[in-house]
Design a protein that fits this description.
Low-confidence stretches of chain A: 244-264
Helix content of chain A: 40-55%
Oligomer: homodimer
Strand content of chain A: 15-25%
Order of helices and strands of chain A: HHEEEEEEHEEHHHEHHEEH
Distance between the termini of chain A: 22 Å
DNA sequence: CGCCTGGTTGACGCTATTCAAAAGTCGTGG
DNA sequence: CCACGACTTTTGAATAGCGTCAACCAGGCG
């Protein structure tokens, strides 16, 4: 089966299509590329720090993350990859990755060879723009995280993370009106948020007690989006998911989607 | 005078040349682009948050920064632009900037129109690669900062910032063997480091007392590079300044450079 | 001279960390 | 079925790191 017909590839195609000039021919060319489906167990390394990045991975199912481990042994997760996200754009353009990537859950990934992707990007302007756009969006997302890590409290960061994850899951078709899958352990959340697992636990307790969220059995339910977004200072603009002229207010519309879980 | 003959453009050209396939024709094409030299006073806005980014700025002299101001009024600086750095790559590819940019000192910038740059990138593969590479390097740099902000202590972050700034200034030809210009106020450093100005002051006092650095009259002198880099856990790899096969150890070689100050 | 910006210092308080331990959850094997 | 171990969540108590508030000093400039 051609990869683009896999239902889980929808998120990836949606990312590509956000580039305004992407044409059908571009997608056809990409569909024809040689690919391989690869599975990673939870905690498996997708690529190591310093890896040459000969392969570009697209997450189809499951969650992956960039990780950096300091000498002290503490770990920071500067980026999460959800369904549809491309993992290894930096290595694609730089020929080396500064940051390892690991699977957080079981991950199914679509694997392209770097050389083939490069050839495709050379020949197809629409694909080129789409990939560069994804790189720029990744920059915008990490920038927003740096701002949160530098200036937001534990509570604000947590609220922001949950808002971002829900928004991204929604965009990938993996959310219901009020919630989505949330397979991260509290320790992994701590590594994203720059906190300890203990403090993550207390912060979550607080948010639960206030009726902002429910988080149970790997599933996040947002009980009060307006309050949560306000607590986070969340504005989805930096994710660049909008279809229109790149403007989007806080808030969202719960619409027409069905129950499509991720990693289930 | 054609901009590429300006002595201050050397840093920009050096950044471009780090892309392996950049040819003379590419540089010639870029040299021929219509440009304008624009000066910004300290604290002037180069572009605002949400700006469409019709112009791409290249810093020739002075320091600029990306800034994000939260509702609480606190400010975070997720990126600094030094001599030779391109300011506005995100808007170039996304058509909108999520983050304002301001001049921290007096800044002299080379201004290209976005449309002209896009046309050039379309026609010249070498330029295209070079610009995309710069975007990827910016991603790598912000990622490294996110890691520091999340997991490093005040002291480690400060040491890391000073190591990075010195290394970048050196690469731009603006450093001597032991030091470089450092025009940031302690409050601006605090906004980079995610700290308060008071704590920045105390952290600097500590590092001075230990003989790691001297910081006086807008000038940084690194008294013990090995100790400072160790305190920071600094490895310059993420800056992607290397000429060779993208590998570079900690440490550096003090060499052949003269006294070329920035903003003097 | 007075004002303004930037640097310095002290006292105090809060946020998040650290250390420690207990309880819940899951898969595995007897 | 229960026992077991590994992992995760939860809770408590003590502490450290950094923030807050406030004051004072130094230099530059109108």
């Amino acid at each position: 089966m051609i990869w683009s017909q896999r239902p889980m590839a929808a998120g990836f195609v949606a990312h590509l299509r956000r580039s305004p000039d992407l044409g059908v021919a571009d997608l056809t060319a990409l569909s024809g590329a040689a690919t391989e489906i690869r599975n990673f167990e939870a905690h498996a390394t997708i690529f190591a720090e310093g890896d040459r990045g000969d392969r570009v991975h697209v997450v189809l199912e499951g969650w992956a993350a960039r990780v950096k481990i300091l000498e002290s042994g503490s770990r920071q997760i500067p980026a999460l990859f959800l369904s549809g996200d491309v993992c290894g754009l930096d290595a694609l353009y730089l020929g080396r990755s500064d940051c390892a990537a690991v699977a957080l859950t079981r991950v199914t990934a679509l694997v392209f060879s770097r050389d083939e992707v490069r050839t495709l990007l050379d020949r197809h302007r629409g694909l080129r723009d789409a990939f560069t756009r994804m790189l720029a969006v990744e920059l915008a997302a990490v920038t927003q995280w740096a701002v949160c890590l530098g200036r937001a409290s534990a509570r604000e960061r947590m609220a922001h993370l949950l808002c971002e994850l829900f928004t991204r899951m929604d965009a990938a078709g993996g959310a219901t009106a009020k919630g989505c899958a949330m397979p991260l352990t509290q320790e992994e959340m701590a590594d994203v948020l720059g906190l300890t697992a203990v403090h993550v636990n207390r912060t979550l307790q607080g948010m639960r007690a206030e009726g902002l969220i429910t988080l149970r059995d790997q599933r996040l339910t947002i009980e009060d989006w307006a309050l949560l977004a306000r607590a986070a200072g969340f504005d989805a603009g930096y994710l660049h998911l909008g279809h229109g002229p790149e403007t989007r207010a806080v808030g969202r519309s719960a619409d027409h989607r069905g129950e499509v879980g991720i990693g289930v």
